[in-house]
Design goal:
single chain; mainly alpha; 2 domains; 0% strand; elongated
């Protein structure tokens, strides 16, 4: 007995615990799941597909099915934006994948060819076409974000210079401006969505009226021709 420890305690501490059985079970499950991968969605579940590929190379676990699924993932991933928020292959990773598939006589894979072609065409995602801006037109079930006035309080917007030439069109428009009525004030107090809905209905009503007038005129011309 030494300070409360017995010989059996030292024997337990000197035992070698083996995790080989558990490691073999995990490895078998890993091989089973990687060989079951078919398309890009299966490979996309991995946190880093090419880090997984490097691990499989060190353990000699690379299979043809996983390489084919990884090539499909590369074809889909090269279309993603070139930012850190998205998983997409790099140039040296595509070269590495091509070399591996060439060693296994799988280089004639359309998915890998399309991925490389797309990667070279847009310069690794740097020359991607910018997203088209949606036009600012009223549409039903569309959200509009109200923005406050960017001009601080007490600062008036810039006015045209007094030495500038007078605009005849603007002078005529100023003469046609009428005074604001209580109906206009009440209309301005309504939310923007209500105003836009009213304007949209008025436009549709005018279109229907114009279509009706055109049909009446066409009928009159047909009767006159008869």
């Amino acid at each position: 007995m030494l300070h409360g420890f017995s010989v059996s305690d030292f024997q337990v501490l000197s035992l070698e615990f083996s995790w080989q059985a558990y490691e073999n079970m995990i490895q078998e499950e890993f091989i089973k799941r990687t060989e079951a991968m078919v398309d890009d969605k299966d490979v996309d579940e991995l946190a880093d597909p090419f880090a997984c590929l490097n691990f499989m190379k060190t353990r000699n676990l690379v299979s043809d099915k996983f390489l084919l699924a990884l090539s499909k993932w590369c074809r889909a991933a090269v279309n993603r934006p070139a930012t850190r928020s998205y998983k997409r292959p790099l140039a040296h990773q595509l070269v590495e994948l091509h070399d591996l598939m060439r060693e296994r006589n799988l280089e004639q894979n359309k998915a890998l060819e399309q991925a490389v072609l797309r990667f070279v065409a847009d310069d690794g995602g740097c020359k991607r076409r910018p997203r088209e801006v949606k036009p600012l037109l009223y549409q039903r079930n569309r959200r509009y974000i109200s923005c406050p006035d960017l001009i601080p309080d007490g600062i008036e917007p810039a006015r045209p210079c007094a030495e500038a030439l007078p605009d005849v069109f603007m002078e005529r428009q100023a003469s046609l401006v009428r005074a604001c009525t209580p109906e206009d004030l009440a209309r301005q107090e309504l939310p923007f969505a209500v105003q836009a809905e009213t304007a949209y209905r008025r436009l549709q009503r005018n279109k229907r009226f114009l279509r009706f007038v055109q049909e009446e005129q066409s009928e009159e011309t047909q009767l006159g021709a008869v």
